[in-house]
Design goal:
The structure holds two protein chains of two kinds.
Chain A lengths: L2 H16 L3 E8 L2 E3 L7 E7 L7 E6 L7 H10 L7 E5 L3
Parallel strand pairs in A: 4-5
Antiparallel strand pairs in A: 1-2, 1-3, 3-4
Chain B lengths: L2 H9 L5 E3 L2 E6 L3 E8 L4 E10 L13 E7 L7 H15 L5 H10 L5 H14 L2 H12 L8 H37 L2
Antiparallel strand pairs in B: 1-2, 2-3, 3-4, 4-5
Helix pairs in contact in B: 1-2, 3-4, 4-5, 4-6
The chains are: A alpha+beta, B alpha+beta.
Chain lengths: ~90, ~190
């Protein structure tokens, strides 16, 4: 398994074990949840609060990367209105 | 269970039809509902989805849904029979949400939140002629800055309000009937 995939899978397992109100690997398109792979959608690594109205979402960045301006714009366009913010967890930052 | 195994169980549900990752069990002029298969890299998830057919639906989504099952990619093979039983038990209850009134009851019972939920309530009240409740929601939006906040809703709401100004609630109900017809044509056949 690739290192980045391993980190994301491990993170998903840990967050899933926390139970409500946490959810992992949620995709959104124009403010509503859609299945992974829907054209134009964004996928967040974790959601805190209800999936339809998150308190905030978490983006895990492995490999010393960080959210790009285009990723940030895509989040703003597709996350549910009222989402408190995007919390990026990045290696080495 | 992997995506393929879960898809096999979903597609074997009696009376369901498949549209991409969606498995539609109810599709009529009032409600479209069933299950969605969500398979990102880390796991496989099954969600309920339910939508008011009388909205102008560009794409199916789980805005009023709920995750009911999840499987880790690393999980040892689960029994397909267990998943089949879980889905059939869930559908026994969930399939009761099949018209306007039971959709509202579902939203209340499941404590669904979010802007799309409010929009669904508004459309449903208008559709069944509960104009007092619809009007109350409209007033809330009027005095709430930036509402409705979802782009997905804003365009449809603009059209509803234009029709209401021209033809009143009767006009709105006719518009919703038109949208319902479109949904049925698009997703139910």
């Amino acid at each position: 398994m690739l290192r980045g995939t391993y980190i994301h899978t491990y993170f998903a397992g840990e967050v899933t074990a926390l139970g409500a109100p946490y959810n992992v690997e949620v995709s959104y398109l124009r403010g509503v949840q859609v299945p992974y792979g829907a054209r134009g959608s964004v996928r967040v690594d974790a959601v805190v609060g209800p999936i339809a109205a998150p308190l905030y979402v978490v983006e895990l960045k492995s490999g010393f990367s960080y959210p790009t301006p285009s990723e940030t714009a895509a989040y703003n366009a597709n996350l549910p209105a009222g989402t408190g913010g995007v919390c990026a967890i990045a290696e080495g930052l | 269970m992997n995506k393929k195994a879960v898809a096999k169980v979903l597609s074997s549900l009696p009376g369901f039809r498949t549209v991409g990752p969606y498995y539609i069990g109810t599709c009529n002029r009032e409600v479209i509902a069933g299950y969605a298969l969500d398979a990102p890299p880390g796991g496989v998830y099954i969600s309920r989805f339910i939508l008011p057919a009388y909205d102008r639906i560009e794409f199916l989504h789980m805005g009023l849904g709920k995750r009911i099952a999840q499987f880790s990619r690393n999980e040892a093979a689960s029994d397909s029979a267990d998943l089949d039983l879980l889905l059939k038990n869930d559908w026994q209850d969930f399939s009761n949400a099949c018209d306007c009134r039971s959709l509202i009851a579902y939203l209340d019972r499941e404590q669904v939140v979010g802007d799309y939920c409010q929009w669904t309530r508004y459309l449903t009240y208008a559709s069944v002629g509960d104009l007092e409740s619809a009007g109350r929601l409209e007033l809330q939006w009027k005095y709430s800055p930036g509402a409705p906040r979802l782009q997905l809703i804003a365009q449809n709401m603009k059209e509803v309000l234009e029709v209401k100004n021209q033809s009143g609630w009767i006009g709105v109900q006719e518009l919703l009937a038109k949208w319902s017809e479109h949904t049925v044509t698009k997703f139910c056949h």
